[in-house]
Design brief:
Blueprint (H helix, E strand, L loop, with lengths): L1 E6 L3 H15 L7 H22 L7 E4 L11 E5 L4 E4 L3 E4 L2 E2 L5 E7 L9 E10 L9 E6 L11 E5 L5 E6 L10 E4 L9 E8 L2 E6 L2 E7 L12 H7 L2 E5 L6 E2 L2 E9 L5 H7 L7 H12 L12 H16 L8 H16 L14 E5 L17 E4 L2 E4 L36 E4 L9 H4 L1 E9 L8 E7 L10 E8 L2 E8 L2 E8 L10 E9 L4 E8 H5 L6 E7 L2 H12 L5 E2 L12 E9 L5 H8 L4 H5 L1
Antiparallel strand pairs: 1-30, 2-18, 3-7, 4-5, 5-18, 6-17, 7-16, 8-13, 8-18, 9-10, 9-16, 10-11, 11-12, 13-14, 14-15, 19-32, 20-21, 20-22, 22-31, 23-28, 23-32, 24-25, 24-31, 25-26, 26-27, 28-29, 29-30
Length: about 625
């Protein structure tokens, strides 16, 4: 599972889409030759950069090859508690078993900090490793720097790198002497460490940078005084602290099961050119990674998947994708990488004949304007959207103290022009919301996918955790515990996305600044469940986002699942008994003074372009007609 924020559909994504179009529709590309020509050019550029930087690459302060028969173990110490162990095998490397401090099981391999008094201007750590077991949580440590040889005794003073097998987490606690001083950087698409991966961390006074297999994956510029940014004296800490360790970090967390081949230290933040030079013995994956990015960006809601020939073309694409993914950074030849990029590009070209133009009438399953009525204007629903106020539930109608605001086709509204009866209001002691009918969804959507859209106007954002959507089924008692579904909540102007399956948080994150929500204007929110990509994508449009430079005033974030997780989440929504707009399952959550309109449900996954069109449609009757 990984999460990826597209933000303002940035240039990188837009360019990838444009290049993908050239691959799919043959613009400037014949018989997959784009990959070969591009690869040759990229390789020549890479070798030039490597040769230019080769004489300038700073030597490593220290290097350790754990898989070597000549490895000297004497500087290192094994820290083992409970059942967690540290072993080393020639030809394999360092092997740490899974552990967590709360259970009394930790493992670490520790050495005197090679960077002590050498890292005042910056440093880099290069490590090749694979995660060989399941992660307990995203805070488990890969490596860290600590004041004590036993990292579990360091009194929460550490700098560690950790992750969930698909991402990484950076933490730094206790630097100011307070128990709560820390920064968290969580990047969900930086790493997939299930295979042996070269991981590079570089830090200097300007930024933290993360590389995987030689490619820059994320950068975090220094931002003084901004919580959540790189804003503590990491360099000062690493320059003076006594120990470096692989494995357990401080007295709260643990470590995953992992195999580490080697680690090296540099007393500067390596430049991209220097990293290219260091990795010049390995094949250049840059063009193949571009093709992978295009494959990842494919949205199969744009294609006629019901065509007779579709399955064979799709299967050929999956085969080419799988064959390319098995290539190993450390062992693949350049010829193998070139061939994989070409084959995958050619397989994607075959999708061109199945492309479907955007069509908002296709797959529209339910449409509720919510303009004084909760009826489905497609007349396929026996139930209606209902309004709950406190413990009472009723049909939407003009007699209610709080009902739906009528849309007039104007995107922004003057709050003073709204009639009090056209809103739902609630204090924390009262529960309000709009209940979405059960027959707004259909079991066939498990295979076809589903899209849900609604427009919301919030007068204020003073109550955090008020929902935009709460989808799925709550369990007995108050709250979402043991429930299954999805919620999307206001949280002091931002959105929070959470998925739970039987009380296990499958995914839980703030997405900022992707969807900054401003009170006093309409926002349109969409959730797309795409079974082909096993993704759930959240879209948000508003005039504010348009002013902030988001393309079409819309931003998005997409989360990928495995088949089992995706089916559990989508099935929990489709079969859910508690699908709501605004209402939370938790009695302690606040509710907004808010308005809603334009609730629609599609029995398929809409594409990005179709979502933009839908967000621009104020009158659902236009779609029906």
């Amino acid at each position: 599972m990984s999460g990826k924020s597209l933000f303002k559909r940035p240039a990188a994504i837009f360019m990838a889409t444009a290049v993908l179009a050239s691959v799919l529709f043959g613009v400037g590309c014949q018989n997959g030759q784009y990959a070969i020509v591009g690869q040759q050019a990229k390789t020549e550029e890479r070798l030039y950069a490597a040769n230019s930087a080769a004489d300038e690459v700073v030597s490593a302060v220290a290097e350790y090859d754990f898989s070597s028969a000549s490895f000297d173990e004497s500087p290192w110490a094994e820290i083992e508690k409970g059942n967690a162990t540290v072993t080393r095998e020639t030809g394999t490397g360092l092997i740490l078993t899974e552990g967590i401090m709360n259970d009394g099981n930790i493992a670490a391999y520790t050495i005197g900090n090679p960077l002590k008094e050498k890292a005042s201007a910056g440093f880099s750590v290069i490590m090749a490793l694979s995660v060989t077991g399941a992660w307990i949580n995203q805070y488990e440590s890969i490596f860290g720097f600590t004041p004590t040889q036993d990292p579990s005794l360091c009194n929460a003073q550490f700098f560690c790198v950790a992750g969930g097998g698909l991402g990484m987490h950076l933490n730094r606690n206790g630097e100011t002497g307070q128990s709560n001083t820390f920064y968290d950087i969580l990047a969900a698409s930086v790493l997939d460490m299930s295979e042996m991966t070269q991981y590079i961390l570089t830090v200097d006074a300007s930024a933290i940078r993360i590389y995987a297999n030689g490619t820059l994956r994320a950068g975090y510029p220094y931002s003084a005084g901004v919580a959540g940014a790189y804003n503590y004296d990491t360099l000062g800490f690493v320059n003076k602290t006594n120990y470096f360790h692989i494995g357990c970090a401080d007295n709260y967390w643990g470590q995953p099961s992992m195999t580490v081949q080697n680690v090296s230290f540099y007393s500067k933040a390596l430049s991209e050119e220097e990293i290219v030079a260091i990795n010049s013995q390995y094949a250049d994956f840059s063009v193949l990674e571009e093709v992978w990015a295009k494959a990842e960006a494919l949205d199969f809601s744009n294609y006629d998947t019901s065509a007779a020939e579709w399955q064979s073309v799709y299967d050929a694409y999956l085969e080419a994708l799988q064959e390319s993914r098995v290539l190993n950074f450390f062992t693949a030849t350049q010829e193998q990488v070139n061939a994989a990029a070409t084959a995958l590009s050619a397989a994607m070209e075959n999708f061109a004949g199945f492309y479907l133009a955007p069509d908002l009438s296709r797959g529209l399953f339910a449409a509720y304007p919510l303009c004084g009525s909760g009826k489905n204007i497609l007349n396929v629903s026996a139930d209606e959207v209902q309004f709950m106020n406190g413990n009472s539930i009723a049909e939407i109608g003009p007699s209610l103290a709080a009902v739906k605001q009528k849309r007039t086709g104007v995107k922004l509204f003057d709050e003073k022009s709204m009639h009090p009866r056209d809103r739902w209001d609630t204090s924390k002691s009262s529960t309000t919301g709009l209940k979405i009918p059960a027959d707004a969804f259909n079991e066939s959507m498990m295979s076809t996918g589903m899209t849900i859209t609604v427009s919301i106007y919030a007068e204020s954002l003073y109550n955090p955790w008020a929902r935009i959507f709460q989808l799925g089924s709550r369990a007995d008692g108050d709250g979402y515990a043991d429930g299954t579904g999805v919620f999307w909540a206001y949280e002091q102007g931002t959105a929070r996305i959470n998925y739970k399956n039987n009380d296990v948080s499958v995914f839980d994150t703030y997405v900022d600044p992707f969807c900054t929500i401003i009170a006093g204007e309409w926002i349109t929110a969409t959730i797309v469940f795409n079974p082909y990509g096993e993704t759930v994508t959240f879209y948000l449009s508003s005039a504010t986002m348009d002013r902030m430079g988001y393309e079409d005033g819309c931003g998005s974030v997409s989360v990928s699942f495995g088949s089992t997780e995706f089916a559990a989440v989508l099935g929990g929504v489709i079969g859910g008994s508690d699908n709501w707009i605004d209402r939370s399952y938790w009695g302690s959550d606040g509710n907004q003074v808010a308005y809603a309109s334009g609730l629609s449900v599609y029995s398929r996954a809409l594409s990005y372009d179709e979502v933009i069109l839908l967000h621009a449609t104020d009158d659902l009757s236009v779609l029906v007609s």
